[in-house]
Amino acid sequence: MGTQVQTQRQIRPRLNIGSWFQRLARDMRKHYILYLMLLPGVVYFLLFRYFPMYGAIIAFKDYRVLEGFWGSPWVGLKHFNTIFSSPFFYNVLGNTLIISIAKLLAGLPVAICFALLLNEVRLHWFKRSVQTITYLPHFLSWVVVFGVLLTTLSPSSGLLNKTIVAAGGQPINFLADPAWFRVVLVISDIWKDIGWGTIIYLAALAGISPSLYEAAAVDGATRLQRIIYITLPSIVPVIVLVTLLRIGNLLSAGFEQVFVLYNPSVYGVGDIIDTWVYRQGIQGFQFSVSAAVGLFKGAVGCILLVTANWLAKRFAGTGIW
Amino acid sequence: MTRSMGFGEKMFDVVVWIILILVTLAVIIPLWYLLMVSVTPFDLWTRTGGTLFVAPWQMTFEGYRQLLTSPRLPRAFGVSVFITTVGTLLNLIVTTLMAYPLSKSNFPLRKPILLAVLFTTLFSGGMVPTYLVVRQLGLLNNYGSLMLPGLVSAFNLLVMIAFFRNLPAEIEEAATIDGASDWQVLWHIVLPLSKPILATIGLFYAVAHWNSFFDAVLYISNAEMQPLQVVLRSILSAGNVNEYVDPDAALMPQETLRMAAVVLTTLPLLFVYPLLQKHFTAGTLLGSVKE
Q1: Which of A229, B74, B118, B172 is most buried (most C-beta within 10 Å)?
Q2: Domains of chain B and any CATH numbers
Q3: What's this model's pTM, rounded to 2 decimal places?
Q4: Which of B127, B161, B215, B230 to mutate to test the interface with A (most CBs of A within 10 A)?
């Protein structure tokens, strides 16, 4: 995919600004309906996507409601100094990175293994049934998953704790115990998307030429050898792509999930950048400080994605763009 | 092929099947358990708590009845139905209108607008500035705040553009030569050919609306206007769920009421799940081959 995009870019003719505007004016007169169609969407992007980007300048101001984005007084890097000297910020940043990286390291291999296993099933109805059931949680909201976790993990009546007690153990309050909360986050994340995460790999696997497997079988390769030497290498570009996107989102860590599942007893281990921004900024009315944190998060996310993409192109030969 | 290899192949299949069955059980058992808790009567609950098997003659739908006959949950249900239908309709209209001009190769603004749209997937103003914009527009405690800030998803827009570009250009050209306007071409020729993509993207948007939770937390403080997911979250974390149902109704286990509310919230999704599975898979793959 990456190479195709590159060739397109190379053959693009150089723009001549003057003649481009002439062409635009002529086209607008002739196809004014097309421009009218475009209008609502363009207004939407300006108002709800680009205006907030402009509004992010309040990170460098003391935002006052009555004076708005533009009228509020400039304060330079004051809020960034506040953030970077606050121990809370480093705690929240650490939580975010730990949760994100744990989800990546645990979730990616699980999804890949699950896709490889599904790919080995030749009975169509069995494969379909497994897919139908495991895709389902993807469509559930995090609030519904919270309900599932409450009833499964409840210390008094939950299925898991009843099993633990029956086996002679002590019940664990998974959702309120700082030692377990991150584990709950990672496992519930995997549970929700274990089936759905395979789709992109299965699509790549479907494109492998059967002749490769036939040749390998003739040479006496076992099933496992065929997986390791044929199947796995053919999905490496997809794995790289998925990893890239996850790295670009490293500072997000799954906001809605954490927001729905956490409670004050696990703030120490579960509070992430976005939940912190919400509590400080919206609930605590510290608009400028939390906008600064948001801007930091956005900028770092951007840099991570661009860097990871560059590295992937350089060393693996694939990238997002 | 030797006999031992045939045996190895069979063992391999057995191991694959066992792992897949275990994973499937791990996905389905918590959901099944939740369903069973939602029909557990009080006396059974006090004796055994939740169980994986409630005998059919012991099941009670009293929890569902109590939730549906008290005002709070049905009201929230109505709000969510409204947001989902009107919101999805608006999403589809604006996304289609925007995608169509951008799908034409010779459209002069194509490149700059696509770049501007792609940029929003890379960088955003963040939660606080977006909240302040919505507030400045006077949309707090207004259903507009649940439909307008996510009016066009960049991903869905790109998927739709890719679909339009794959339609045969000859049909459109023929219609244009016959004197059809751009609007007529879109309405009479392109849209009828686009039913599959409209279904896919409509479902994408509808599920997002049905499941959306945090935007309502941000923008809707009026309890009367809260959508289903927000009310469900309060029911799940309430100290006493009986506040959400008729106080004179028969006493039900708290867990039973909570899980009945979860099931009611999920039910509409389960009805469209067969459709979802078909269209979502297609749509996700379409998105991954965008230009």
Answers
A1: B172
A2: 61-291 (1.10.3720.10)
A3: 0.91
A4: B127
